[in-house]
Amino acid sequence: MSTLVFLEHHEGELQKDSLGVLGKAAQLGGDVSALIAGSGVEGLAAQAGKYGATKVYVADDPALEAPLPQPRVDVAADLVRRRGFDTVLFGATVLTADVAAGLAARLDAGLNWDLVDLAEDNGKLVGKRPALDDTVYVDVGWKSEPRLALIRTGTFEPVESGGQAEVEQVAVELEDFSTQAKMIEQAHEESEGPSIEDADVIVAGGRGLGGPENFALVEELANALGGAVAATRAVVDAGWYPYSTQVGQTGKTVAPRLYIAVGISGAIQHKVGMQGSNLIVAINKDPNAPIFEYADLGVVGDLHEIVPKLTELVRQRKAA
Amino acid sequence: MKIAVCAKVIPEQARRIDPETKRLDRSGEQALNPFDANAVEEALRLKGDDAHAEVVLVSLGPERSLDALRKALAMGADRVVLVSDEAAEGSDLVASSYALARALEREQADLILFGQQANDSDGAVMWAAVADRLRRPLISQVAELTVSDGALRGKRQTEFGYDVIEAPLPAVVAVSDAINEPRYPSLKGIMGAKKKPQATVSLGDLGVEPDRAGEAGSRTEVYAIGDPPARGETQRIDDDGSGAEKIVEFLLERKAL
Questions:
Q1: B93/A101 Cβ within 8 A
Q2: CB A191: neighbour CB atoms within 10 A?
Q3: Residues 199-218 of B with CB under 8 A from A
Q4: HEC profile for chain A?
Q5: Superfamily assignment of A2-179 in CATH?
Q6: For chain A, domain boundaries
Q7: Closest CA to A197 of A258, A250, A153
Q8: What is the fold, at CATH topology level, of the domain defined by B2-217?
Q9: Contact A281 B257 (CB under 8 A)
Q10: Nearest Cβ partner of A111 from B138, B143, B220?
């Protein structure tokens, strides 16, 4: 195999998911290269070496500063054509999904998305894809090369191998249509603590909180656990919490070590976004809430009573 | 202004993958992909009462998809172009985006809209493949859209917040389902929908070569269908005042604290 992993970065850091995919590529074997596209990103190359890349291609150009997909398709297509990679992997994000699909069209290459595993079976690469609200798992493959894949958020943990990568600058030549979309403004939500993609622990709040002011309960518990805060579609739509924290079918898919669902009924649209979590704890006053069917531990009760007490107990434990 | 909305018709209850063909079982009642209703709504909003503006639905699917597409006509779209061909069955992203791009080329729309995702395949990438084939600028995950003076401005939702992106028309936009609340068709709309133009075209009509459609034109395949990994046992307790303590005990036992 000769694999290229597209590495996404944000504010001078390579994304954890991208590094996790890089580690998986290294585990599958063969030549593993990485592509970092951006402006002023050369410094990120060394980090990629530590996580499994033996070669890092850096496309550094002011035209790549904004996180827009089409110029990245040009860069990746050019690189794949010249170097003949047989596999190109992406950790799925809003940006990389568009890059991967644009690249599939450009190279007439197969793209499988939402994969939760990759394995080699008698020389054939096989991806695992949950379908129909994750009620079935489908083994998918590719009929030609290059083979393109988008890996679901939170699937692979980064593995530090301590290696060093050779760095090569690649020329950036862009199509006219690729540079027509222009970034006018970027508004990033400030949040304390880890993002929900990177967090080991997530505390999520739903409509059962009763109002936006009660998110403080969720934030305090997350804070005590060193985790991130997530929200359901219903409360994001109601304006209680920002979209960037939305977990579920139309938001993010997360798979933390611990997911605590507070006042969340756990309908299928939410379930598909978090059921990959290692451990799920649910607190809800409705004994018939669907979340109790799949939570490892469900507590039927008043979240206003339970959550502050839980926060206090966690704080005591951590302080001890 | 001419707006094309790419709409997908999906099984109303997609619950089964056919073990024989390894494709989604598409029998039973059909419905407009609910996320595409947001794209239709946005197109109608942009059209407003401009008598020269047109909203055309472009879809890929079997002939009987027309029944479900009429829902979008009933909302107010002007006509349908359905690419329908047995040879297109089993098309993956590469093959579908090629046929769709060919159909869209004929329409020469100023703006091409997609919904956020397909509810049957969970696919959320078609627009990027189509934009690349048409060589048009692309903005996805758009929660607010304005069009003026031959350009558009979209507010894109991302993992980190919001981006505001501008692009000249013609362009491709995928809207988020947060962008609007799709209207319900009125009785008058439903009555009028049947009379609106509904054209069916074949792959041959579009000049799509047989080896670029269906399974022959696809680059991905399905090997097997299995069960999801089983979760461990679930336990449920009623809070008797010691709920918080029990959660802590459980977390310690599972080494999660």
A1: yes
A2: 16
A3: 218
A4: CEEEEEECEECCEECHHHHHHHHHHHHHCCEEEEEEEECCCHHHHHHHHHCCCCEEEEEECHHHCCCCHHHHHHHHHHHHHHHCCCEEEEECCHHHHHHHHHHHHHHCCEEEEEECEEEEECCEEEEEEEECCCCEEEEEEECCCCEEEEECCCCCCCCCCCCCCEEEECCCCCCCHHHCCEEEEEEECCCCCCCCCCCCEEEEECHHHCCHHHHHHHHHHHHHHCCEEEECHHHHHCCCCCHHHEECCCCECCCCCEEEEECCCCCHHHHHHHCCCCEEEEEECCCCCHHHHCCCEEEECCHHHHHHHHHHHHHHHHHC
A5: HUPs (3.40.50.620)
A6: 2-179, 201-319
A7: A153
A8: Rossmann fold (3.40.50)
A9: no
A10: B220
What distance in Å separates residue B191's CA from the closest CA in chain A?
33
Look up the pTM and report it: 0.90
Domain A201-319: which topology?
A: Rossmann fold (3.40.50)
Domains A2-179 and A201-319 share a fold: yes
Token pair 């008043």: residue: A302
- ipTM of this predicted structure: 0.94
Where is average pLDDT lowest: A264-273, B11-20, B137-146, B174-183? B11-20
Instruction: Say whether B226 and A314 touch across the interface (CB within 8 A).
Output: no
What are A129's strand-pairing partners? A138
Q: What is the mean pLDDT of residues A2-23?
A: 95
A153 to chain B: closest CA residue: B159
pLDDT at A249 (0 to 100): 85
> Which residues of A fall within a CB distance of 8 Å from B139?
181
C-beta neighbour count of A267 within 10 angstroms: 17
Q: Contacts of residue B160 in chain A, CB cutoff 8 Å? A: 10, 186, 188-189, 195, 244
Nearest CA to CA, how far is B4 from chain A (Å)? 19
Q: How confident is the model at residue B231 (pLDDT cuts 50, 70, 90)?
A: confident
Mean pLDDT (whole number) for B136-148 = 97
Q: What are the boundaries of each domain within chain B?
A: 2-217
